[in-house]
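Sample pair:
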Amino acid sequence: MDNKNKGKLEISVLYVENESTMREKIAEILRNQVKNVYIAKDGIEGLNIFREHRPEIIITNLTLPKLSGLDMVRKIKEGGDDPHIIMAVARNDLDYLFESIDLSISRYLLKPLEKEKLVSAIRDISKRKEIEQTVLDEKEKFQILSENAPLGIMLIDKDGRLKYINPKIVELFGYQHNEIPDAMAWFIKIFPESGYPHNVIVNWINDMEDSIHEKKEPWVHTSTCKNGVQKIVDFFPARLSTGELVIFCDDLTELKKNEQKLFYITRFDALTGLPNRHSMEETLRQTVELSKNGRKRGGLGALLFMDLDGFREINTTLGHTVGDELLIATGKMLKGALRTGDSAYRFGGDEFIVIFKGVSMAEAKLAAERIQRTVNQHEFSVDYKKFTMDISMGLIQIDGTIDPVTLLSKVVDTLYKARKLGRNHIAIYRGE
């Protein structure tokens, strides 16, 4: 900044005055206070200068030759501009004031203009413009951030009116702002179940007003969109100091689907659809704990380990596709032969496991024989040829005295003993 402008207000002013002595006096005052000053001697010249330079403040007489100050301001406003207006009026001009009401005059000053009052008015307007610009800048930042945010954002006032929604809300739920004028209308649309919107609102209010929780937890709800599609949405409400409510919305539908897919992949066998080894180990641990705590209350269980006799030869001679079909069919038979509460698993290859709950060894042996008969009696068809399968089994009691890892090791050894006896045998673990 050069020295002559140092300390001056960073603002532009147009001064319109038809009386030359007053015009020169006030012009000198303005040039000492303001960086950019434009001078006009009548309303026409003032209008032309404004259209060329667009100053931020206009100081003008109410009455001017050629075009009055009122008409000049009116034409400026009609053009879409909205500068701050300081209107200089004489006492006999008061009759014209009613005409100026609709022009939003910023300040009226009596003539002759006094330096202190004029400078004070300009400084006040300059300060106000700085504040307005700060607000506009913050509003623009919010607008840019909210309209490009990956989350839905809505603002609800203290009376429940929906003041703002960003484009992501429209994309997420399908409703335009005019379709959801207030929060209750929106809640009813996305939570159409009777009573559900009320419960959601009550829970959110209680959560926000609960001073015990420093961090408010998000609420995940299944929401109905305009097209009827249901989405799983994470809602995070936040109360502003003004009493307004901001709600952030995040679509978790795909994430939840991927979580379900990941859960299935990690817990189920892709070929047979049976729970896999990981699931089996978890169930076995739970069954052992139940047996420890409830041996006298029906807490006993049993672990059945089995594999298909001759499966390797079938894979070699008939191909892996036939082998896969055989494993799929075996998985279906196992599920169909189980009692309520029991569970079947594919351990790997042609090996399967069943965990029986609430059984004695005698009952577990009967259940194993039933499964074996089911497999033996099933006719498999390959290229119009039918054949049956044998299955070998190892069985061990779950009574809480043996840990899961050791149980699994011993039941595998027991299966190997059954296979040494030949095809289609059931061996029972009797202790060392």
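The chain has a mean pLDDT of 85.
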